[in-house]
Specification:
Blueprint (H helix, E strand, L loop, with lengths): L1 H4 L4 H8 L3 H13 L3 E3 L5 E3 L10 H22 L2 E8 L2 E8 L14 E3 L4 H7 L4 H9 L11 H14 L2 E4 L6 E9 L5 E10 L8 H20 L1
Antiparallel strand pairs: 1-2, 3-4, 3-8, 4-5, 6-7, 7-8
Pfam family, one: HTH_IclR
InterPro entries: GAF-like_dom_sf, HTH_MetabolicPath_Reg, Tscrpt_reg_IclR_C, Tscrpt_reg_IclR_N, WH-like_DNA-bd_sf, WH_DNA-bd_sf
Protein name: IclR family transcriptional regulator
């Protein structure tokens, strides 16, 4: 939250986490002690020297999250499943906004979580935008540790499929028993800003729904893009 949204007060953190102010204060105090956060003169907490995002400024991520939340809520109402917005930083992705389905059996909020990009729906969408040389460079550092990274040949085939289809389907890739479907969200200048996805228990996923889910995701992405342009 501090990385992507900028300074937050104890009260704001407590409300977002669903905890008491005293609990939020203890958490923030420990982050300060470990240099993950610092407290400014206005009694708000901001990101500390340990945490930096290379690819996404706090203001840009905050604007993207704020614009996306109403659309995520509408998407959940339309499809009845949890919805997420995700950005990429290097070989990882971070969920910057998440709205849970109201169904009893549902995929929980992923907001704030970080996953390897090649294991997530949005990660596949965002990696598919990279030229081949940048993809190779991204995983070159892990070439001597194959267990830590993807099989590049298999990943290239997956990304080619994503580019052809214009959407991604993830069946148990990042988490067993979960299916996620996603599309890209573009900035006004045509760059890919994020991945928009819905997640559901695999027991409830029906392949026959895929065309309608993709169509709804695309309509939602286009509406968000219009808001970003405005």
């Amino acid at each position: 939250m501090l990385q992507l949204e900028g300074p937050l007060t104890v009260t704001e953190v407590a409300r977002r986490l669903g905890v008491a102010n005293s609990t939020a204060h203890r958490l923030l105090a420990m982050l300060v002690y470990r240099d993950f956060a610092v407290r400014d003169e206005g009694r708000a907490y901001r990101v500390g020297p340990v945490l930096e995002l290379a690819a996404h400024s706090q203001s840009a991520a905050a604007r993207l999250r704020a614009a996306a939340l109403p659309h995520l809520h509408r998407l959940v109402e339309l499809v009845g499943e949890s919805a997420n917005l995700t950005v990429r930083t290097g070989a990882t992705v971070r969920f910057i906004a998440s709205v849970e389905s109201r169904q009893v059996l549902r995929v929980g909020s992923r907001e704030g979580m970080v996953f390897p990009a090649h294991r997530t729906t949005a990660g596949l969408l965002l990696l598919a935008e990279l030229p081949p040389d940048r993809l190779d460079a991204l995983y070159a550092a892990g070439a001597d540790r194959p267990d830590d990274g993807p099989d590049l040949d298999a990943l290239r085939a997956d990304l080619a499929r994503v580019r052809r289809n214009g959407f991604a389907v993830n069946q148990g890739r990042s988490e067993r028993g979960v299916v996620a479907i996603g599309v890209r969200v573009h900035t006004p200048d045509g760059e890919v800003a994020a991945g928009l996805s819905v997640s559901m228990p695999s027991a409830r996923y029906e392949k026959e729904r895929l065309p309608s889910l993709v169509a709804t995701l695309r309509a939602t992405a286009e509406a968000l893009e219009r808001d970003l342009a405005g």
